[in-house]
Amino acid sequence: MVAVGRIVLVLIVVFAASAGLARWIGAAQLASFQIVFTNPDGTPCVQPCLFGVRPGETSVKDAFDLLRASLHPPL
Is pLDDT of 23 > 70? Predict the structure, then answer.
């Protein structure tokens, strides 16, 4: 019975450490993910937006121009 208790304790510690590691990695990646919700120059845009494109307000031509500028920012 003691062996089962030790196995359960080890599994709890391993799963808790795995959850903590996953949360730590996720928090580190969140900052890099926020760049998607900015204008091509890197400034925050009014939500909802994606690379500066706002649904219902941005024309198709302007959306292509913004996306092209996001892919190739000026030097």
Answer: yes
Token couple for 54? 């706002």
DSSP one-letter string for 6-75: HHHHHHHHHHHHHHHHHHHHHHHHHHHHGGGGB-TTS-B-PSS-BTTB-TTTS-HHHHHHHHHHHHS---
Write down the pTM of the prediction: 0.45
35-49 pLDDT, tens per residue? 777 777 778 887 788
Q: How far apart are alpha carbons 43 and 3 in whole angstroms?
A: 57
Query: In this structure, what token pair is assigned to residue 36?
Result: 């998607």
